[in-house]
Amino acid sequence: MRGQLLEFARPYRRRFLLGVLLLVLTNAFTLLLPWLLRGAIAAIERGAAAAVVGWYATAMIAAALVQAVIRTGSRLTILGASRHIVFDIRNRFFAHLERLGASYFDSHRTGDIMSRGVNDLLLLRSLYGPGVLNLLNTALVFTGGVALMLSLDLTLTLWALAPFPILFLVVSLLSRRVFAQSVAVQEQLGALSTRAQENLSGIQQVKAYVQEEREAAAFRELGAEFRRRSLAMATLRGLMLALIAGFAGLGTLVVLFVGGQHVLAGRMTFADFVAFNATLGLLAWPTVALGWIVNVFQRGVGAMQRIQEVLAAVPDISPAGETGADGPPLDGAIEIRGLTFRFGGAQGAALTDLDLRVERGSRVAIVGEVGSGKSTLVNLLARVYPCPPGTIFIAGEDLAALPVGRVRRSIGYVPQEAFLFSRSLRDNIALGRPDASDEELSRAVALAGLTRDLGDFPDGLETIVGERGFTLSGGQRQRVALARALLTNPRLVLLDDALSSVDADTERGILEALGRDLRGRTCLLISHRFSTLAGADRILVFAAGRIVEDGTHADLLARDGIYARLFRRHLLQERLEEVS
Amino acid sequence: MSRRGKSPAGAPDEEGVLGKAYDARMIGRLWVYVRPYQLLVGLSLAVLFAVSAVQLVQPYLLKRAIDGPIRERRPEELPYWAALFIATLLAEFGLRFAQLYLLERTGQNVVFDLRNAVFSHLQRLPSAFFDRNPVGRLMTRVTTDVESLNEAFTSGLVLILADLAKLVAIVAILLAMDWRLALVTFAVLPPMLLLSWGFRVRIRAAYREVRSRVARLNAFLQEAVSGMRLIQLFRRQAHDYGTFTAINGGHRDAELRGVRYDSAFSAIVDLMGSLTLAGIVWVGGARILGGGVSFGTLVAFIAYAERFFRPLEELSQRYAVMQAAMASSERIFGLLDTPAGIVSPADPVAIRGRLRGEVAFERVSFAYEGGEPVLRDLSFRVGAGERIGIVGWTGAGKSTLIKLLVRLYDVSAGRITLDGVDLRDYRLDDLRRGVGVVLQDPFLFAGTVEANVSLGDPRIGPEAVRRAAAMVRADRFIARLPHGYAEEIRERGVNLSVGEKQLLSFARAIAFDPAVLVLDEATSSVDRATEAAIQQALDVVLRGRTSLVIAHRLVTVQDADRVLVLHHGRLHEAGTHVELMARDEGIYRTLYSLQSATG
After folding, report:
1. What is the extent of the structural domain holding A510?
2. Is B88 on the interface with A (CB under 8 A)?
């Protein structure tokens, strides 16, 4: 991990070098203050003219001003570098996510990926920024401060520094326990939240079973444990902070008692005594910060590890496949030979020994139960998942060997769930063709049967939709997704139950319009609607990863198999609807 | 920071608004929760003042030690002052610890009560409230808002009081020691406050900007991760990478702006301290030379000046804490002020002995808030001990019947009676104990298997639990669990199968022995063996009580005394299975043939 941490910092090594230089200067000027103070006190002791004291004070003011400027610069340099580094890592993170295939996102929850991209990057920011800054600063303050103190009085320095190792040890010991306890507190807070979440999600049942009071009592118990743990935490933290404060005072005590004796014995001037006290004061905070620094580095390394896990995930599709030579769009003839496909980690095969030929320009409907492999086939065709080589051929070419870009350019795929981005309707539709002209857009909108709906949206095509925007109905969203696919002018259209929320009449209208427009294009559509199925050139019935029936609507009814049974059920349902 | 990080998409707007740091009305309402701990609060305050006092004594001791033994060369006195100094150190250590602990303790106690009050109140709010308020928002009340109040205790109001007291004390001490030197020390105060105020405003604005950029960045990232398949399918990687980099860059630049103000501000605060030091040396030096003050006074002044600046720097931080706390209490009390809605009547009808179990719907209509009517003018009667099947197409209003029967919602018009008494005239608890409910997806509570049957009712002992389990044959799978009846149910029963959960909820119904049982038949498919076990158990459960079974498979209602067919919220047909099958164009018959057609 140290390698990775350094690698991301490397582009900014000059910046860090400058930061170190500025910090050295900052600390030099900081230490100038006790030194000047010493001069001033010595002058007063000598009974020098007030002007001399004034000169020292002026020098102190000048030193302080210069120091303030340099300090600002050093912080800017190093903290700024941390922001640039995090910017780089975040970009890398995003770029890598874009290359990862669907299987990665199937096995990693969004929340987990987000936590790495958000919380872990915050931890890294702390490491590169305040972590590095304070580490360097502490080292420099100690070096300079101790040197100055040694020059003032050797034995007093040893006396004064004696408590520091103990302080450091105690603080680092305690801070480890504080950290462990804070984890325990967070855990209990998590338990408390989970309990509340469960309760609130099932509130109706809680009420129906008259469990309100028991639930409240159980919650109270968890809360009491949380309070107990928080107080244990407060005890540790209180102990640590009180100790730190006490130790800071201990330094003053040593200077007062030992230093006082040195002054009385004439081994030290009073000016040195005051300057020594002032210098010692400068060391207190950096010592305390050490415990914090160690913690920041530990957590930062853990964060780097978690981010590295994402960056190290291998994409399904090789970079060559991603960027391989492009070519003209593929036409929509499909041939599948002996395709067996199994999801990673799954027991059974999703598709078993599938053979299929679809002529260019035909419209093929697919029907079957949930989990019968319909969506898997469509996903493989769109290369959402990588297909085994030599099993799927589009326009006569092995899909697995084709550059992904070319495949996707030729295919218009509308997935089951119509996902809209929180952008304008225009951006959502033009997702694959940001350069599309207004005419092209309105043609796609019209084909998807959206033209009339546009009037209902506050800003027409510029309406912001999605989670944070205008809420579209399920049917509207599906039609937006369809328009999005049609805009790319694909040779092969794949509709994965993509119009399920659109009412049957509208769907029929859309499909008719598509039929006129789709001439020459192949269309594979998964559907449960018989109005849709019946209109197809051919119907495939899927069951348990195989095609069990294949033919036209009339053929399949005549066969009296699964399709015919489904159709009868549909007729009954229709009758039921008519009762009202 | 970590807590905020957990909601990466950024909290909804209402959570972010900050206003007053002190709101007398809110403080007044909070006081109700603080009062039980007023002793603790008083003690905390006392300790806080004591800490300040001890801290203020130390520079004075330093002054006396310098002026006495060191400057006047009286070495024999040095140990005396050192001992005094040690005493103050020990006192500071003990008092500071006590202060930190007591404040946390006060805060935790108050917050504990408040959190329980919020949670208990949530238990009493009507179902309609939960339809309006997403769980996530309510969770924020119970966790984040309550925590921010705790922070108000540990680093808010009380400390502000202590800090102010400390400042006043320092001012007094310095003026008493040497008013001229004191004025020099304070001279830096106006520019310091002005600068501090100016910077704080800018820093806060900068970080507000950062927060809104973070929200945008994370929202974009989240959406990209969720919609990655589309980004790839439509070959938008390069384009979206560009957008992301731009947003990321905007965020970085906002942060850099914040860093700039931050860096300058912290340097300036340091500078003010150094300037004060220089001022004290300059004027103090001249005063020593003129014989006006002693060296000890000079050193003490330097030490006091340091103690003077720290609370000033922290004040603005404490101010922000108080702002957040006020906003949180506003939201918490807003929730606590929401009326409970469905409550027991003031003068409830007492239930003597066991209910007979006669249920009647009299012209009942019902619509969910802002929705279409779900039930329309529905009337039917169920005799004591009768077994009723309720069937209908999805959306016919079947599940709503259950919710009305246990008053999760109240009818919009008409009334429902139990043993001839309007449901609304019973005590809520009595009603819900008299009408048992078994739902489609049986709800399991956090706790043991045994507690999930007895639900903690003292009248249902371990014996009764085992008897009930045996009656529905749940005892067999319970025996196979590693800890048997003491097995902990995890996350609403992930460690149990659907069938097992079902049996457990049947055992619960048996144990409680309600006069009326409403059962929403499970739709999830189970294997044939489990199915048979459930059917058997069902017969046991329904015996000897009025039952309304909402059936999804018509097999279940074939032996019912009567079947009610709901359609679009109205009673469409009623009769026995045989009667209903005799109707040519009936819904029941259609449904029946539909189910047999698909097996």
Report:
1. 320-579
2. yes
